[in-house]
From TrEMBL:
The keyword Manganese does not apply. Belongs to the 3-oxoacid CoA-transferase subunit A family. PROSITE patterns: COA_TRANSF_1. Pfam families: CoA_trans. This is 3-oxoacid CoA-transferase subunit A. GO terms for molecular function: CoA-transferase activity. InterPro entries: 3-oxoacid_CoA-transf_A, CoA_trans_fam_I, CoA_transf_BS, NagB/RpiA_transferase-like. Signal peptide: none annotated. SUPFAM superfamilies: NagB/RpiA/CoA transferase-like. Keywords: Transferase. It comes from Oceanimonas baumannii.
Length: 232
């Protein structure tokens, strides 16, 4: 990787500098648009005591769920438990610290972090356990709670196409949390299905500008279905 060329040749190089105890932002929603190979590399590295911020924690045996198997995640900041029995088990036993956050609030926490906004007010969660210990202010007769933005030491992101400069396009619903996570990491790593020459991507189609991206790598993906339902 040199200058504006963000390409790296291995997943080990892509996650160079990831250490125990760091905060990791991960794109994806369920198993849609998850950076599955970067997650597998984290497992291979054995990085531990991670705080992971993601909509959910994959499923048993795939996605972020594989990091639960080796107890590599210390704290999970997420919107829901999802189709993951091990997540539920570790949550209920107290083995895994979990901060459940409303989905829109979680998205805005990442967006604000990437935009350099330290905190924001939202009505979501007022009057529930979500609001406990948080500042409350009234605007136009309605109470709002203060939520702090989120940033991370690393952000791992799944894109569709990128150029050498790190400009990224996401495909359909696989966009989800990925562009938000990409802006909020001190080091942002994007794995994509295809890397093209600079100038091949239509500027109006780019979702994440390369200024936010530090490393890109081209990979092969399983794209597993989270829950298959068949007609009887």
């Amino acid at each position: 990787m040199a200058g504006f060329d963000k390409r790296v040749n291995s997943y080990a190089e892509a996650l160079e500098g990831l250490k125990d105890g760091m905060t990791l932002l991960a794109g994806g929603f369920g198993l849609c648009g998850i950076p599955e190979n970067l997650i597998a590399e984290i497992r291979r590295r054995g990085t531990r005591d991670l705080t992971v911020v993601s909509n959910n924690c994959g499923v048993d045996g795939f996605g972020l769920g594989i990091l639960l198997e080796d107890r590599q995640i210390r704290k999970m900041i997420a919107s829901y438990v999802g189709e993951n029995a091990l997540f539920e088990q570790q949550l209920l036993s107290g083995e895994l610290e979990v901060e459940l956050t409303p989905q829109g609030t979680l998205a805005e926490k990442m967006r604000a972090g990437g935009a350099g906004i330290p905190a924001f007010y939202t009505a979501t969660g007022y009057g529930t356990g979500i609001a406990e210990g948080k500042e409350v202010r009234e605007f136009n007769g309605r109470p709002y709670i203060l939520e702090q933005a989120i940033t991370g030491d690393f952000a791992i992101v799944k894109g569709w196409k990128a150029d050498h400069f790190g400009n990224v396009i996401y495909r359909h619903t696989a966009q989800n949390f990925n562009p938000l996570a990409a802006t909020a990491g001190k080091i942002t790593v994007v794995e994509v299905e295809e890397i093209v020459e600079p100038g091949e991507l239509e500027p109006s189609q780019i979702h994440t500008p390369g200024i936010y991206v530090d490393r890109i790598i081209c990979g092969q993906f399983e794209k597993r279905i989270e829950k298959r339902t068949l007609r009887g």
